[in-house]
Amino acid sequence: MLEVENLSAGYDGTDVIRNITFGVKANENLAIIGPNGCGKTTLLKCISNILSFKGSITLDGRPFNKMKRRDISLKIAMLSQQTGIYFAYSVYDTVMMGRYLHIKDRFSHKPSLNDIRVVTEALEAVNLLSEKDREITKLSGGQLQRVFLARTLAQEPDLILLDEPTSHLDLKCQVEIVDYLKEWSSKEGRSVVGVLHDINLAMQLSDQMLLMKGGEIMEMGRADEIISKGILNLVYEMDVGGYMKSSLKIWNKEG
Questions:
Q1: What architecture is domain 2-82+157-254?
Q2: Around Cβ 75, how many Cβ atoms within 10 Å?
Q3: What residue spans of the chain are helical by DSSP H?
Q4: Reading across the β-sheet that carries 29-33, which strands appear in turn?
Q5: With contact defined as beta carbons under 8 Å apart, do 43 and 17 qualify?
Q6: Tens of pLDDT along the chain (255 residues)?
């Protein structure tokens, strides 16, 4: 699916990430975790082909430098946290925007029957078909993020990149977004690579976790492997396990 090798990138001539190498298999989800400023979002920008980089990125055996930008965009979609809405589009029209690269009649932008089917299925997947005619300016934060998830699904990518998509959402919405993505990635050779601050959510989503600090990979492996090595404490400069266990004690008292 995705191979990243010796990747370095940054801004104004200064590398923010250095010598990043990892792979993601089809139907495998990877969570990227680490403290603020460690280069997680910069790494996603490289994989989404919006930031120049040194090294190589290969998707389904094809190097990025041998692919057209449109072909990469058809394969990869980004879901990030939403900070503002500027137009009162309907839910349906917003999700249809995910079909832009697929619409054959670019002049009239008229969707085909297949485009309509895909958008309808995407809305059904996030339980918003009944809200398809509502203006997105009138939705709650959780509903709005589900609309943007549906738009991402409507793009029919093979790989979805997440950049803190659950930030500012309540717990129920966070869990729903992760559950939708897990269900989506279980089918037809799909994968998710996500940046998440919440370690518990990252563990729920991922098969593998990539731990970053200072622009470099500190560790990669299954969540239980990373936790057992105690490297989280080094990266976050705190007793992560102790904090989690103290929280669990409070829940156990409630039980």
A1: 3-Layer(aba) Sandwich (3.40)
A2: 19
A3: 40-47, 69-75, 91-96, 113-125, 141-154, 171-185, 199-205, 223-229, 231-236, 240-254
A4: 76-80, 159-163, 191-195, 29-33, 208-213, 216-221
A5: yes
A6: 899 999 999 999 999 999 999 999 999 999 999 999 999 999 999 999 999 999 999 999 999 999 998 899 999 999 987 656 668 899 999 999 999 888 766 666 688 899 999 999 999 999 999 999 999 999 988 899 899 999 999 999 999 999 988 877 888 888 988 999 999 999 888 999 999 989 999 999 999 999 999 999 999 999 888 888 889 999 999 988 888 888 888 888 765
Contact 21, 7 (CB under 8 A): yes
φ, ψ of residue 206 in degrees (nearest 5): -100, 155
Task: Identify whether the C-beta of residue 38 lies closer than 8 Å to the C-beta of residue 219.
Answer: no
Report the amino acid identity of residue 66.
Answer: K
| Global pTM value | 0.90
- For residue 123, how many C-alpha atoms fall within 13 Å in the half-sphere facing its CB? 21
